Amino acid sequence: MPSLDPESIRNDFPILAKLVYLDNAATSLSPRQVVEAQVTAEYHYRANVGRGIHRLSRMATHQYQDARETVRQFLGGGQGTLVFTKNTTEATNIVAQGLNWKKTDRITTVLQDHHSNLLPWYRLKNEGRVAGIDTVPLNDGVIESSDIEACITPETRLVAVGHASNVFGTIAPVKAIADVCRDHDVALLIDGAQTAPHLHIDLEEIGCDFFCFSGHKMLGPMGTGGLWISDAVSEENIPRPLFAGGGMVDCVEGTAFTPVTGPGRYEAGTPNVIGAVGLAAAVRYLSRLGMENVGRHSAALARRMLSGLSEIPGVRVYTPADAPLIGTVSFTVDGVHPHEVAYFLDEAAGIMVRSGEHCCQPLMHALGLNGGTVRASAYCYNTEDDIDMLIATTEEIAGMVR
């Protein structure tokens, strides 16, 4: 398969004519094809799903279920269940609040992970629903399967791990972690918010139980995402849907009710039909590019950032140089607050980056960084020129304070 040529697709992203966008770890841009798919849905079959017999409802229901199948196949989900959610956070909370926990259960997490894969588990501990949280400590941004295994105890019920760090950009060996979890009869939840946009994902090959992701980081609309549940996890394992109400119920008798089977039991209320259509268009777009190509391109740009930024006096790079990476690199400039760096990059060169703690306060505390870091994150439409502009402008900022 030919390598990815970002110049050939940049016309699909009109906003790139005005700026250098390097905040993709937070939110990616959407191509024309995704926007047009949503507009078509609005104009031609705006209706609720599974609620009516008229043609618009039938069309909307068909498109919604087709979108579900498109995304499930994109993730290599086989016969597992794909639940549409607003984002990774909601997906994680469906599992956290839905499992039947015992008060003796323990959960293993990773200190460097995003709050969305920490706080739902902390909440269970704080409410006394589980016995405790065992946290993999900071190891220069790199997670090994042995780190996970060292934290597993006989009481461990679930391991929750980020597939890639949204601060360091490092990729965790989730297949090896899944093997460890299987050996210890422990469930595995993967936060794939950072990897679904960049890597070829084959959930059946990985062997996890739950996979959470966000559409807005993978060219899709905001307010879209999903939770994939392995066939090995029965509905009895998650008997308590996060929300109850319209659409998720099969039968109501008195005050008792029975949820429907399948993904609908976790999708109470009117779903984001237009968003699901847009998300399906996004994964079709990525499939045409080839996820192996996307991953290689993002990693190459990250390596270019690492090399260039590391050579600038007064710049400290926190992303390890010898680890598998997505497109993300974090750094600081001595004597300049990360927010000031981000502001100057925008004002001086139209470069959009993220600054601050990146929803990773435990990690920032461990690093001793009160102001967080500057995070630059590249994607399929970014070029080497974008990276070189970032490096040159950062060098200018560092030179101003020397």
Automatic annotation (TrEMBL):
Cofactors demanded by this protein: pyridoxal 5'-phosphate
Which ranges carry the Aminotransferase class V domain? 20-390
**What CDD domains does this protein's entry cite?**
SufS_like (cd06453)
Pfam families associated with the record: Aminotran_5
* InterPro entries given in the database record: Aminotrans_V_dom, Aminotrans_V_PyrdxlP_BS, Cys_dSase_SufS, PyrdxlP-dep_Trfase, PyrdxlP-dep_Trfase_major, PyrdxlP-dep_Trfase_small
Q: What class of enzyme is it?
A: transferase
UniProt catalytic activity:
(sulfur carrier)-H + L-cysteine = (sulfur carrier)-SH + L-alanine
Q: What is its EC number?
A: 2.8.1.7
Task: From the UniProt annotation, give the residues forming the signal peptide.
Answer: none
Keywords, ordered alphabetically: Pyridoxal phosphate, Transferase
**Homology family:** Belongs to the class-V pyridoxal-phosphate-dependent aminotransferase family. Csd subfamily.
In its UniProt entry, what is this protein called? cysteine desulfurase
According to its UniProt entry, this protein's organism is Methanocorpusculum vombati
